[in-house]
Amino acid sequence: MAPDPLRIAGREFTSRLFLGTGKFPSVAAMQAAVEASGTRIVTVALRRVDLDAPEEPLLKALDATKLLILPNTSGANDAEEAVRLAKLARAAGLPSWIKLEVTPDPRTLLPDPVETLKAAEILVKLGFTVLPYINADPVLAKRLQDVGTATVMPLAAPIGTSKGLRTRDAIAIIIEQATVPVVVDAGLGAPSHAAEALEMGADAVLVNTAIAVARDPAAMAAAFRKGVEAGREAYLSGLAPERSTAEASSPRQGTLGARG
Amino acid sequence: MSLEVFARNLDASTPLTPLVRQARDLTVRRFGLTMQLFAPLYLSNACINTCTYCGFSRPNAIARRTLTEAELSREMDHVAHEGFRHLLLVSGEDPRESSLDYLERAVRLAHGRFASVSIEVAPLDEAGYRRMLAAGAEGVVVYQEAYDRNAYAAVHTAGPKKDYDARLKAPQTAARAGMRRLGIGALLGLAPWKQEAMALAGHALRLQKTAWRSTLTLSLPRLRPAAGDFVPAHPVSDEDLVRLIAALRLLLPDAGIVLSTREAPELRDRLALAGVTMMSAGSRTEPGGYEEPEKAEGQFELSDARSPAEVAERLRSLGLDPVWKDWDAALLAT
Q1: For residue B269, how far is the Cα from the chain centroid?
Q2: Nearest CA in chain A to B24
Q3: Which parts of chain A sit beneath pLDDT 70?
Q4: What is the pLDDT of residue A195?
Q5: Best residue in A209, A213, A216 to probe B by mutation, most B CBs within 10 Å?
Q6: Is the pLDDT of residue B117 over 70?
Q7: What angle do CA A50, A20, A72 make, to 5 degrees?
Q8: Residue A67 CB: number of other CB atoms within 10 A?
Q9: Range of the domain at A38
Q10: For residue B68, with 0-12 CB atoms within 10 Å meaning exposed, 13-18 middle and 19 or more buried, which class applies?
């Protein structure tokens, strides 16, 4: 198959799997999962890293020559807080790409659409490449594309639930209408979920919990890698359309039935 | 899960092992294989309340001390040097010794050095909490101690802390002021524990609805020996504590559960795998105790004397990543 890179804001990536770095039992386990996943984009919660520390262990463990380190604004309650965090990251020398998360409810961590749009507008104007985490809301996705975000990242299911593509119908509309890459984020619990998202035409997926808390995170990362690749190949190859009636894979006409 | 199931899980007839396993799975799913570490820092043991179980109780003839700003700085440097990025400022209640101005200065001092600052002080009004937030505190801890009104009245015999309702509404007031982390809890030993657990659970469920922007943390400190020789009327066994923490986790999957150095290392290991998500380590409960141990009286006796580095190492060997920083001071507009 011809090379099929993921293109976001003019950059090309050889993997369609984003990996979150939270919840791992150790930095070494996280590194092994990054390696096995083949990912080229890893997200890092700004609230977890010590930007003042010269030897920040999490950042030190990630090879910035191979990976895009994508800081996220998790913990931000509103647009103002998210913008403040993003500016802080840029001032500390991190790339000006930002995964925008505005999640005022610490229980569900569901994104606030109003504040997300507001923050996206400000950050785009400030020159950031903005990848917003959103509910699977097609109208919001269009509004964000209109203000200039580099992707949209609709959730499959509430974060950490591993329920898979519960928002499938809305994501299908988002994909159909998108002018920027669609990255399905949150709630993917199994490689088959990731494959399903790619089969539908999503450009990439982001996975964290399902890999980080697996008994063997590196092996699970490898499994997700295969799921993503299989889903993408199936999408590019043209899936057979669903039908409401059965259709034999070896039609009788012209074979056994031809005798009579 | 309903309170009915929670009550059933508290009962000894529900097998403990599967309960703990479920609680562990849920904790891992929600919080990952991590344990957040924090340090308490005592500002003052001056107190105008008579609380019969507490070492700082007014009638106790103990060495009292309120740290000066210079002393506070030294204490903060000490715990920061140990690796802590989350700090809990604790103080007795005494408007002259630990006034609102004093507390505000202490929070400001800490805000510059720590990623997260919380306060465990007497209940404040909304304006008071707003001042603390503006100075850099993101969290408020107010334990109800005893949810049972009679038990509460029996041990809080003099001083402003006698006002049960003022204390009960403090977390909601703090949330209204914009505080991001609310810590509630019951001091186990003052009243029958299952009854206290039900009341705490009800309080938590209510706060999750009304204070929806705030993260909730729960704490279940057991009474420890302290000055004044108080004997708890309703002791809670290790098994009961494990059961309670596992049951709370199943009822409240998203709530942080906090464990202090009141408990012994072996039990802390068990609880780390049964629902606890935040731990203090290497704590001192006397003001100035990090730099000058035992110059003033502590609040209670500690059972885990390990250093923060030793606790972190132990967590790693249990398969948990010790997390020193899980908040950023830049999130607050200060």
Answers
A1: 18
A2: A213
A3: 1-2, 54, 251-260
A4: 97
A5: A213
A6: yes
A7: 50
A8: 16
A9: 6-259
A10: exposed
Of the two residues A162 and B90, the one the predictor is more confident about is B90
Ordered structural domains, chain B, with CATH:
3-314 (3.20.20.70)
Contact B254 A106 (CB under 8 A): yes
Residue found by looking up tokens 């964290």 in the block: A208
Residue A1 falls within a domain, yes or no?
Answer: no
B73: CB partners within 8 A, 6+ apart: B109
Tokens of A86: 């993003």
Residue contact A46–B326, C-beta within 8 A: no
Distance from CA of A162 to the nearest CA of B (A): 9
Residue A243 burial (CB count, 10 A)? 7
Please report, for the domain that includes residue A128, its CATH number.
3.20.20.70
Closest Cα in chain A, distance from residue B84 (Å): 12
C-alpha angle B301/B307/B309, rounded to 5°? 150
- The C-alpha of A147 sits at a distance from chain B's nearest C-alpha, in angstroms, of 24
**Which residues of B make CB contacts under 8 Å with A?**
28-34, 85, 115, 180, 208, 212-215, 254, 316, 319-321, 323, 325-328, 330-331, 333
- pLDDT confidence of residue B219: 96
Q: Under an 8 A CB cutoff, do B325 and A213 touch?
A: no
Instruction: Answer yes or no: A163 catalytic.
Output: no
CA separation for the pair A186, A205 (Å, rounded): 9
Q: Chain A to chain B, count of Cβ pairs less than 8 Å apart? A: 72
Read off the pLDDT band of B230 (50, 70, 90).
Answer: confident
Query: How confident is the model at residue A252, as a pLDDT?
Result: 65
Are the C-beta atoms of A145 and A178 separated by less than 8 Å? yes
Instruction: Name which of A104-108, B44-48, B273-277, B297-301 the model is least confident about.
Output: B297-301
Quote ipTM for the complex.
Answer: 0.81
State residue A260's pLDDT score: 45
Q: Do A77 and B325 touch (CB under 8 A)?
A: no
Residue listed under structure tokens 């106790």: B60
Looking at the domain assignment, is residue A108 inside a domain? yes
Count of domains in chain A?
A: 1
Task: Give the separation between CA B191 and CA B278, rounded to whole angstroms.
Answer: 25
Structure tokens at A141: 């996705």
Q: Which residues of A touch B254 (CB under 8 A)?
A: 106-107
Distance separating alpha carbons of residues A216 and A223, to the nearest angstrom: 11
Q: How far is CA A140 from the centre of its chain?
A: 17
pLDDT tens digits, one per residue of B317-330: 999 999 999 998 88
Q: A46 at the B interface (CB within 8 A)? A: yes
Is A201 a member of any domain?
Answer: yes
Least Cα distance to A177 among A152, A158, A147, A149 occurs for A152
| Min Cα separation A105/chain B (Å) | 5
- Does A66 map to a domain? yes
Q: Hey, is A35 helix, strand or coil?
A: helix
CA distances from A11 to A8, A200, A225 (A): 5, 23, 20
Out of A99, A125, A142, A226, which one is annotated catalytic? A99
Buried/exposed A112-137: b ≥16 CB within 10 Å, e otherwise = bbebbbbbbbbbbeeebbbbbbbbbb
